[in-house]
Amino acid sequence: MTQMNKIQNLHFLFYFIGLSFLFNSCTKEEIKPNQIKEFSIHSNNTGSDYTIWVVLPKEYNPYLKYESIYVLDADASYFRYDKIAKITEEQSSKYNKQNAFVIGISSKNNRERDFTPTPISDVGGGSENYTKFIELELIPKIESDYSVDTTAKSRVLIGHSYGGLLTCYFFTKHPNVFHNYLTLSPSLWYDNNLLFQYETDTRASNSAIDNLVFTGCGQLEEAIVLGAQEWNYRLSTFYPNCKLAYQKLKNRGHTTSAEENAETGLEFYYKNK
Asked: Counting CB atoms within 10 angstroms of each CB, which of 29, 161, 236, 242 has the fewest?
């Protein structure tokens, strides 16, 4: 074989290796279309309609019972339900744990109303009705239509920003709906840090709960960092049975920290559930 032929053969080899790598990388990022189910649900509690995406676990077996991961803001470009589903698939595989259903909830309509506990300048204040929508309307439908575990211990709630505020609202006001929380960049500054007053008011009745809580934020988020640190401090001080983790990502802002914190939070969940 001539030197030129050897060089040509090496070029072809690297070309096919590159194609194989590209194919595997693209395949890794995809959730198959037949895994995704979409429907709309009307809430009598909020008076609004919501688009819901259900991502079935890979190799879904209807004879098994699966955990369920509820994602707020699931149509946000930096926080899409399919991205969360792929991370869930990867982390469950990494720790040799059963994969889970991912339920994405659209927040395009009335997000500020639904995620905030009190009105400010006539905007917001719908958290209680929204929690009823999730607890009394959405969860029963999911658990009726799909083969999911119906215990709170099997449910995870992921929220970012106002959605992170709502995860704290669930923890304080309705701690028995979800057992696991990924609280990302929570807007705990809302209404003069009102959520901290809720935590103080409910502490005596909630102090024995053993929920799993991951709190994450980005270093560049300033006021949100202070709230996230205070939240983690209170949980670590007053809730001795909870499993906790906290992460502040260097050089990350409000949206740029979301997906990476979600990945770390889901890893924490699969390691400790």
From this structure: 29
Angle at the Cα of 12 (from 6 to 18), degrees rounded to 5?
A: 135
Spatial CA neighbour of 231 closest among 270, 199, 264, 266: 199
pTM as predicted = 0.89
Distance CA 99, CA 13 (A): 36
Strand partners of residue 120: 123
Q: How crowded is the C-beta side of 240, counted as CA atoms within 13 Å?
A: 1
Task: From first to last of the 273 residues of the chain, give the pLDDT tens digit.
Answer: 544 444 344 343 433 334 343 334 343 457 899 999 999 999 999 999 999 999 999 989 999 999 999 999 999 988 899 999 999 999 999 999 999 999 999 998 799 999 999 999 888 999 999 999 999 999 999 999 999 999 999 999 999 999 999 999 999 999 999 999 999 999 999 999 999 999 999 999 999 999 999 999 999 999 999 999 999 999 999 999 999 999 999 999 999 999 999 999 999 999 999
Residue 141 has a CB neighbour count (10 Å cut-off) of 14
Q: Under CATH, what is the fold of the domain 35-272?
A: Rossmann fold (3.40.50)
DSSP 35: G
Give the residues across from 123 on adjacent strands: 120
Give yes or no for a contact between 58 and 99, defined as CB atoms under 8 angstroms apart. Answer: yes
Residue 243 Cα distances to 5, 40, 133, 182, 197, angstroms: 61, 35, 27, 12, 22
CA distances from 127 to 118, 187, 199, 212 (A): 8, 14, 15, 22
Q: Where are the domains of the chain?
A: 35-272
